Known about the structure:
The complex is a heterodimer.
Chain A: E1 2-8, E2 11-20, H1 25-35, E3 42-53, H2 55-70, E4 74-78, H3 82-91, E5 98-100, H4 103-111
Helix pairs in contact in A: 1-2
Chain B: E1 18-23, H1 30-43, H2 48-69, E2 78-84, E3 88-95, H3 122-130, E4 133-139, E5 142-150, H4 158-162
Antiparallel strand pairs in B: 1-2, 2-3, 3-5, 4-5
Amino acid sequence: LELLADDTDGIRILRVRGRVDSATAQALGDSLVGSLTPPGARLIADMSGVDYLSSAGLRVLLLAMQQAQKANGRFVLHGLNSRVAEVFEISGFNSILTVCASRDDALALMAA
Amino acid sequence: MDRDPEPLPDLPRLPQARATVTLADASLDLHCAYAALDRFATAHALAEETRRDLGLAIDEMISNIAKFAYAKDAAKAVRLELSIDDDAVELVIEDDGVAFDPLSASPPDTGAGLASRKAGGLGIHLVRHLMDAVVYARVGGSNRLTLRKVLSTMGRSAIGTAGR
């Protein structure tokens, strides 16, 4: 799993690449929750490089969203491939996570 | 004088319809299972989606075994067997841990709000959706989970069909 963070204008964009499974999810979770710990933090996760996400990945995304709420931050995802989107759908995660169609949409939401 | 018979053309080697792999340590050797699946998927020209769904099932079920059937002592073996027939891929996962039926877990509440949402139970929930059949049996001192993924018309590429 590859994680690449880029901070611009107070917004962190985290590019996630590879397979998010029970062996790698913890690293993603640490990065997400760490990024969302400062009060009011804004984080966009670019998931376009993720070809696969298991329930271990769902778990850390849920923890990240709960952390964002706790610290009054914002957490938005974009770039889900069709399989990851299907996993979200089956798990009912679309109702608790904010998923944008594009990075521009995600950035617009952050600015709003 | 008789001519030498034409040499027979090399017959394409048919892929083994069955592949088995034993993971020595359920908590550490997930990559061995992926490698076995990848070899099997390549040999049978499985569609990318089929491979990914099977990979997810392996990940979910093996982490369940490490967590529950082997509880605190996960450094124990898990046996995997992949086989294929005309209609489906069958994946059998066996461990020697305490009796643990993942199908007995109550389904997760996928409609709960953010604050009360729990991540537990999502693994088997995903697997039930992505596989066409999941059957649990306690056999002797082992847990045996049999998963079946039907090959859709898109389940296998044309090359794979021609090679069989």
